[in-house]
Design brief:
The chain has 451 residues and is α/β, with parallel strands linked by helices. Among the domains are: 184-261; 265-441, von Willebrand factor, type A domain (Rossmann fold, 3-Layer(aba) Sandwich). Helices cover 55% and strands 10% of the residues. It has helices at residues 19-36, 46-62, 66-82, 86-102, 107-123, 128-144, 148-165, 170-182, 189-206, 210-222, 229-245, 251-258, 278-291, 336-349, 380-390, 406-414, 430-441, and strands at 265-272, 297-303, 307-315, 362-369, 393-399, 420-424. A 6-stranded mixed β-sheet has the order 3-2-1-4-5-6, sandwiched between helices. Helix 15 (380-390) links the parallel strand 4 and strand 5. Mean pLDDT is 83; it is low at 353-358. TPR repeats lie at residues 70-103. InterPro entries: TPR-like_helical_dom_sf, TPR_rpt, VWF_A, vWFA_dom_sf. Residues 252-441 form the VWFA domain. This is VWFA domain-containing protein.
Length: 451
């Protein structure tokens, strides 16, 4: 264990002996379960993650640790959901919801679990009316909070579940359309509209209106610069089936489907040294170890009054890279634009022309900063031009950002094909943001965060 050899089956070597020896075997077997939580490699595939979370769940239940057991149920639910095991996911999320109530979680957190339970139950075609009631409770809460973003997410999840169940989702989709027309959601507007158009097409296809359904599928694919990879793939698959059924040419659709598959990525991480603590860096390290594939390349850049390249684009190392955040003397400078431009140069210098699917690499720049730029030689207009030309995707984590910096950040992410802006008010929300980013970048991959 000192050498992190946690694959050994300790109890396999057990032989009957004195009570002290038996207890010692049990202690080491329990310790192995705990230590595995520090090793991301045990949570990178479905089978391994399932085994380790199940072992941890039993351990926490034996010790009466309901809060940790809730976490295990929640992550097991996410694991089953990724594998489309919706019945098992619903059971785990339901147990998570009940434990969250016992532990006096915020109503917002409990509502989040209600939505997950309802969605999984509908996708599993299990107890439609109970699932519908959970969705309704969640919508009422989000309406009371005037949280239109969560309303839209909930309505779209509800529409997907209703369609899976084989029911008519017209009422829910009409409500979604009303909100989308009445309110703009910034950089998320296109993602919401794509999901709406796709589900609208599915609903029409269920009713036998195939021509209208196909037009909605096409609209969900063609009319947006920024896209949801999963919805795009499903829309293309529906179009392919419709075209094949009517003996229409499918070459172009098949070609587009080829580009929806996962491909290697170049990822440049850029950190504002003022906000990068050891705790935050460890969260990003876990993100890199769990989400990033072995064929991907990663670079790390830090900045404040100067730009420092910690390492250039290179394959994900087997061993965790050590980086100690530095203490910076007080300075009025924060060279954000210069740092992002350096990231653009990194991905551009190592880019490949798309001559075949195997050679193409997606390019991503992920920035953690409060969003303020002071002292950069690079002008915002210059950065916009270089970023747009590069074709790279920009994800910006606005950590503790003030309102006045959000507009230029939104302009930057809108310039990129799959740009994303996440506003983080406190470090406790960073884990959820990294989960969102991982799912966004790797929509077809199964992975979990156990942090």
């Amino acid at each position: 264990m000192r050498n992190h050899d946690l694959d050994v089956d300790i109890m396999e070597h057990y032989t009957p002996g004195p009570p002290e020896i038996s207890s010692l075997y049990q202690v080491f077997d329990t310790l192995k379960v705990v230590l595995r939580f520090e090793e991301p490699k045990y949570f990178q595939d479905y089978t391994g993650a399932l085994l380790n979370y199940a072992q941890a769940l039993k351990l926490f239940q034996d010790y009466g640790n309901s809060r940790a057991a809730e976490l295990c149920y929640f992550e097991l639910g996410a694991l089953h959901f990724k594998e489309s095991r919706f019945e098992e996911a619903a059971t785990c999320y339901r147990n998570s919801m009940e434990l969250a109530r016992e532990q006096s979680f915020s109503y917002s957190e409990i509502t989040k679990r209600k939505v997950l339970v309802a969605k999984c139950m509908m996708l599993a075609k299990d107890d439609y009316y109970y699932a519908y009631s959970l969705f309704t409770q969640a919508l009422e809460f989000y309406e009371e909070q005037n949280d239109l973003t969560e309303q839209i997410n909930c309505l779209l999840d509800m529409a997907e579940g209703i369609l899976k169940y084989g029911e008519n989702s017209e009422k829910v989709l009409n409500k979604t359309s009303e909100i989308l027309k009445a309110r703009k959601f910034g950089y998320m507007q296109e993602i919401f509209e794509q999901r709406y158009l796709f589900f609208k097409g599915l609903n029409l296809e269920r009713k036998g209106q195939l021509k209208s359904a196909a037009s909605y599928y096409v609209e969900s694919i063609e009319n947006f610069y920024r896209f949801d990879a999963k919805i795009r793939k499903e829309a293309l698959e529906r179009l392919l089936e419709l075209f094949q059924n009517y003996n229409l040419p499918t070459n172009e659709i098949s070609s587009m489907l080829d580009y929806t598959r996962d491909c290697p990525k170049d990822i440049v991480l850029i950190f504002d040294s003022r906000v990068l603590t050891k705790e935050i860096y460890n969260q990003f390290s876990k993100f890199a170890n769990i989400a990033v594939d072995s064929c991907d390349r990663v670079a790390l850049i830090s900045f404040y009054s100067e730009i420092k390249t910690i390492f250039n684009l290179t394959r994900r190392p087997k061993e965790k890279r050590k980086y100690e955040p530095q203490d910076f003397k007080f300075s009025q400078e924060s060279r954000l634009y210069d740092a992002v431009l350096e990231g653009v140069k990194q991905v551009s210098a190592c880019s490949f022309k798309r001559t075949s699917g195997s050679e193409f690499r997606e390019q991503w720049i992920i920035v953690l900063s409060d969003g303020e730029d002071i002292g950069s030689e690079t002008q915002l207009s210059e950065l916009k031009a270089q970023l747009a030309e590069s074709g790279a995707n920009l994800i910006f984590l606005a950590y503790g950002a003030k309102n006045f910096v959000l507009s230029p950040l939104e302009d930057l992410v809108r310039l990129t094909p799959r740009g994303l802006l996440e506003r983080i008010h406190h470090k406790d929300y960073l884990k959820d943001s990294l989960k969102n980013i991982a799912s966004y970048m790797y929509p077809f991959k199964v992975f979990l965060f156990n942090c």
